[in-house]
């Protein structure tokens, strides 16, 4: 199999880099300064144990792509960029398998409108992308855990082959009949992303921790009302065990969650509409009030739109706004 990594940032760069290190054929897709850095200096993948430089083919987009029957597309852009990426790639690769290695639960439905073979991937992969050409993957001994399964459900030989490749590339990759059950569990955890992005780590301030709890309580209430199953915390921890400890990465810049990174890079957008906003949507569909998630969505979007510094809103001020 040849892996086409659409969006070679934190998640895509970590997956593509580890696959390439293990000997698999990988093509990275990236534009702008990041694409230029990848072409000129290769992908620098920093881990607790290695500082790797991987010289890989880099495409700016589908206009440079030449498909083969063994290609697998790995979609690793943020959800707010999913439709544009799908519209660009479907005309040239719509008959190939597409993996949605993304946070949130909206991507698979968007992809299935354009691709017949869609796979959900639940991404447990702490990683950072703050500097063009450089990706930091701080977990060890495994780089991450990537549940994979067909969308809307089931497994097939393609999923098993991809799982085998990833398992040989420093990932734990369970093949799941019900992969979306794991993605909804991850969604509940990702409701903290907006809090961290605008005010800092929730664990460092009890006010922020309480906001995260309230957001998660709303999320669980909404999922119950909608009849949506999700993996429990004990089940998640039992599978992950101690195989994904975050460790120091020599020479790596400070990094936090994906939403914080979007603000730090000044991208002008953030994924809150598809994290906290997903809970808001489900709440409106099923008659559940979600004031905390509504406020967090609004505030995070304003931070991205206005180019504000991540973590700059004091906890007390955020609590007053929520």
Task: Give a structural overview.
This protein has 322 residues and is of the alpha/beta class. The chain has 13 helices and 14 strands. Strands 5-2-1-6-7-8-12-13 form an 8-stranded mixed beta sheet, with helices on both faces. Strands 4-3-10-9 form a 4-stranded mixed beta sheet. Helix 1 links the parallel strand 1 and strand 2. Helix 11 runs antiparallel to helix 12. The longest helix has 21 residues.
Structural class: alpha/beta
Give me the strand/helix succession.
Answer: EHEHEEEEHEHEEEEEHEHHHHEHHHH
Low-confidence stretches: none
Q: What is the overall shape?
A: globular
Name the features:
alpha/beta; 14 strands; eight-stranded mixed beta sheet; 18% strand; 322 residues
